[in-house]
Amino acid sequence: MEELIDFIEANPDPRELKRALAVQMVMQNYTHSRIGQILCVSVGFVNKWKYRFVEQGIAGLKLKHQGSKGYLNSVQRQIVIDWLKQKNYWHLDELKEYVEDSYAVIFESNQSYYDLFQQADISWKKTQKKNPRKDPELVAKKNEK
Fold this sequence. Notes:
- The model has no long low-confidence stretch (mean pLDDT about 85).
- This protein has 2 domains: about 1-60, Orthogonal Bundle (Arc Repressor Mutant, subunit A); about 75-120, no CATH class.
- The protein has helices spanning about 1-10, 15-25, 30-40, 45-55, 75-85, 90-105, 110-120, 135-145.
- It is mainly alpha-helical.
């Protein structure tokens, strides 16, 4: 019981806290329906976590899912952004190749690459070195057609 109380006092996650409180109240002989009313949970919730606690202890009350981790850590991301800022013009395919070669990461969606461009304050759509309308030869050639 002491271990359960310590867990309740130290636990910041509300889902784990609700599980632990349900188990604690069962151990203090509250009825399952009363626990459900107090914690706003179902009787099935109370039973589930009571049995999980009996079988696995405190570890049974903890969340199993830790979330996914980003492919690039903050240092790697900053290195890629610095690399982008050093270049005069950019291509999406070139960024994809750089990230894959440097960190063995292939993003599932292009949006991740666009986010890297945005963090580097670069419009990823800038693919030409200069505006072709400013080139007199190209303008003359276009006017001839």
